[in-house]
Amino acid sequence: MMAIMLEQLGLQPGHRVLEIGAGSGYNAGLMAHIVGDSGQVTTIDIDEDLVEGARNGLRAAGLDAVTVVCQDGGFGHPDHAPYDRIILTVAAWDIVPAWREQLKPGGRLLLPLEVGRSVQKSIAFDKTGDQLESASVKDCGSCP
Question: What Enzyme Commission number does this protein have (predicted)?
């Protein structure tokens, strides 16, 4: 699922990325390699234990440039906005305004969206003006 979502995300060197759902930090590390030294990756999670584990894992991998923050992902992270890409690695039932507001024009929001009882779709939305337009839809079901 990670590979599918990273493909949908369409990362490029220099992109500024916000990841909501830090987990182990592995996905943030992959994204940091793709965006390179000219890019920036910020990953956030509401669980302090996960945040500390992600920090330690990223540090051990020599990826000190990834910013790891403990906070509610529903607010995004305005301190480093605007972002070229925002990715949720946790399930969502709706798109909150903060994500759209913190996304650059032409940016992409990717999230596993609950679309029915026990049904998830990994949907990439591109920001066009004030609107989000679906760019890619894939089946998924691995994001709790």
Answer: 2.1.1.77
Q: 23 φ, ψ to 5°?
A: 55, -135
Fold annotation for 14-140:
Rossmann fold (3.40.50)
**Could you tell me the pTM of the whole model?**
0.94
Nearest CA to 84 out of 35, 46, 138 is that of: 35
DSSP of 83-137: EEEEEESS-BSS--HHHHHTEEEEEEEEEEEEEETTEEEEEEEEEETTEEEEEEE
Contact 20, 89 (CB under 8 A): yes
How many residues are there in the chain?
144
Q: Which residue has the tokens 């529903």?
A: 74
